[in-house]
């Protein structure tokens, strides 16, 4: 899984455009739909000869939690020193914090135990799965769940303008696959059996334009 959400610089190299509202090469690309994210994966896969895709919902939560069972991977609550969300609202015993009113550069906040940054806040991240109201009948092998409405897709992680409770590891929301919003972004996974170290390192480096 990418160490960071896909940046605007990386998206520009692959897609030839930057749809983001908050322009900055090292900020996450946003204002992208599920369809846009999937198209990015197709294009980078073709360019590299390796298979890139969006994570399944189960993969995303496993990667986010990094072995923890608390609401957040750093414990029972969250502050704006740890993630970029709407600090006018609080979670648990935490105080109010900063409301930055925009995205921030990737990697600004502490990573989880797996070395992944910005799994909470900054931008919502698209997953492959179709939306289901519950986990009844969900796959037990972390694969993508494609039952129910194919037009409703999953996002995880919260964003810069949402309340902190939306950042919880277990929280999930859905929007249509065509929806674009200046808080919607994504990160990618590469199929391990086809690992290409150079391209993976490019994805892990937010300043890289090697893609």
Can you describe this structure?
The protein has 211 residues and is an alpha+beta fold. The chain has a single domain (8-204), classed as paralog of FGE (formylglycine-generating enzyme) (Alpha-Beta Complex), CATH 3.90.1580.10. Helices cover 19% and strands 12% of the residues. It is built from four helices and six strands; from the N terminus they run ααβαβββββα. The protein has helices spanning 8-15, 34-48, 57-65, 197-204, and strands at 52-53, 124-131, 149-156, 173-176, 184-185, 189-190. It has a four-stranded mixed β-sheet. A two-stranded antiparallel sheet has the order 1-6. The radius of gyration is 16 Å and the shape is globular.
Classify the beta-strand content into a percent band: 5-15%
User: From the coordinates shown, what is the CATH architecture?
Assistant: Alpha-Beta Complex
| Name of the level-1 CATH class | Alpha Beta
Low-pLDDT runs: none
Report the total helices. 4
CATH homologous superfamily (4th level) name: paralog of FGE (formylglycine-generating enzyme)
- According to CATH, the fold-level topology is paralog of FGE (formylglycine-generating enzyme)
Helix amount: 10-25%
Element-level helix/strand string: HHEHEEEEEH
Alpha-beta classification: alpha+beta
- pLDDT average, as an integer? 91
Rounded to an integer, what's the Rg over CA atoms? 16 Å
Main sheet strand line-up:
4-3-2-5
Apparent shape = globular
